[in-house]
Amino acid sequence: MQTTKEKSKLYTNPLFVAAFAILCCALWGSATPFIKMGYDLILPPDRSVSSVILFAGIRFFFAGIITIIIYSIARKRFLYPQKRNLGKIATVSAFQTVIQYLFFYIGLANTSGVKGTIISGSNAFFAILVSAIIFKQEKLTPKKIVACLLGFAGIIIVNWDGSEFSINFTGDVFVLFSAISYAVSSNLMKKFSKDEEPVIISGYQFIMGGLFMIIVGVIFGGKILYINSLEAFAVMAYLALLSAVAYSVWGILLKYNPVSKVSIYSFMIPVFGVVLSAIILKEFSKISFVSLSITMLLVCVGILMINYTKQKKHQ
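RESULT FIELD:
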């Protein structure tokens, strides 16, 4: 087995962080087209907010079950949280699953997909701000601010379609609240992972949050169609699995690295979302390869700025 020192050396390796952070972003980006497919296959035609919340709750509840099963098998023991950490897990669940996704799904129902993607793409910037200003886990430097602005500019470019921008409280502002909630949850994950394993936090916070969203969805009349086809089952299974894998890996990266070095990769999520939506949903007419190339350049420069450390010369 690896020692704590060996794990730390591996998990802080820049290439390891880059590879697995990009994997997480690709998984989260793929959620966009698969959620749209899930809506068509599983939700009633009216697609009410309560039905969407119920759909999300089922997805996250099973994501938690999958997380615990997979990692329990890998560790050859059943993973369960320490009693003293249940409150911490519930707090992460409140911000990472319940608040984030309630605001996101309601906001997305009241704004355009383009604006929703642009606003939600600001979560990396908020994660770094929250880390520096509220949690005091690292310093906010001009380099970090410029890197975040470059990444955010890239998200605007890849999603910009010439539309007029206006502010809608229950749409745009709700999506903004969702991004801020994500930022808080990332910092809570880093803080609490000192006392509990990230995969345990991820798994049980999904179960708690998923159950809460299922109850809310049912109370307000949410309905889903029976998952009676292989395609519908595969879509729901994939959505649950991607959340289980991505959040667990992301939690491990946050445990061993500064929030800024991990969260900066979040700017890649909308990029993957655009590309994978074009491929899976055959929406090639909605993508501009010029703007995509400019976005990738800006995001990569931002990532390099955050991760580049000038080597000291040996005397």
